[in-house]
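#help-structures
NK: newbie question, is this the right format to request a structure? protein is Aldehyde reductase
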Amino acid sequence: MSSTSNTIKEYVQACTVTLRDGTVLPSLGQGTWHMGDDSGLRQQEIEALRTGLDCGMTVIDTAEMYGGGKAEELVGEAVKGRREEAFLVSKVLPNNAGGKKLEEACEGSLSRLGVDQLDLYLLHWRGSIPLKETVRDMEKLKADGKIKRWGVSNLDVRDMKELLSLEHGNNAVCDQVLYHLASRGIEFDLMPWMKEQQMPVIAYCPLDQGGGRTLGESRTLQEIAERRSMTPLQIALAWTIQSGMVLSIPKTSNPAHVRENAGAASVTLANEELEMLDRAFPKPQTKQPLDIV
Ligand SMILES: NC(=O)c1ccc[n+]([C@@H]2O[C@H](COP(=O)([O-])OP(=O)(O)OC[C@H]3O[C@@H](n4cnc5c(N)ncnc54)[C@H](OP(=O)(O)O)[C@@H]3O)[C@@H](O)[C@H]2O)c1
């Protein structure tokens, strides 16, 4: 590995979040939605994930839903021989989130990933199976050694309060929700509440799915990026993790983009820059419905 990669890795390792069970993780991880969809990109995507590991972005987020299991298989190939370096997160579909179905779904994910245990297993979103059953059976998977810990995704404050009121519900270690500069709704209530619970947010779509018009064309992001010789997306990504409360999981199939994203860990935005971003992307003043994709 080059000395440049070592420096990037040091920056990535220096930005961390702490899960509710005390586990410390780097604030920049890797997403995998749509990976494995295009067989022509397979080797490049495996290389991208391995480059991410080289850079210290050890949290890899996947789901049984992604490509009907193809993303998990690709992740399995990427972490072959490097299992100990990776922190593997997968998600169960709501219809499978209880009883025998949960056990089978977890076995399926383990088998596609080629591992014995998931580091974190998330309920992908709330469905019709009562949370009480999901919690009970997540705890069973934990007792059986199939998963190390569990959490949830796409739950807003009301659902989170209900979850934590259940027996063993407060063993949930995180909530994974959509969060980026142009979608700050959770700052109004979910984030402050999670902070009180000492529970980090896992931010999905931290680049607003590649920037598009919201981030890519922002004059403010461009101005800050130019001053720092960075890219606007690096600034946008750095912004998501600066609070120390957020673990962001940008997805990229491109190893050069992986290094670029890892470089965001080297940025600490100054108050003046944060204020500029607040003007361009205002904080929510009222309750917003949870943003989803
Ligand atoms: N829990 C949930 O319900 C949920 C929902 C959505 C997503 N997720 C998770 O969160 C992850 C991230 O979300 P996402 O994939 O939807 O969106 P994202 O990470 O915000 O954006 C991904 C897009 O950004 C591009 N990109 C990444 N880095 C770039 C860079 N440095 N320069 C230019 N383009 C760049 C990627 O293209 P290239 O590949 O060409 O670089 C891809 O098109 C997912 O992969 C998944 O693991 C969870």
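mod (FA): yep, format's fine, and the tokens are attached above. The radius of gyration is 18 Å.
NK: thank you!
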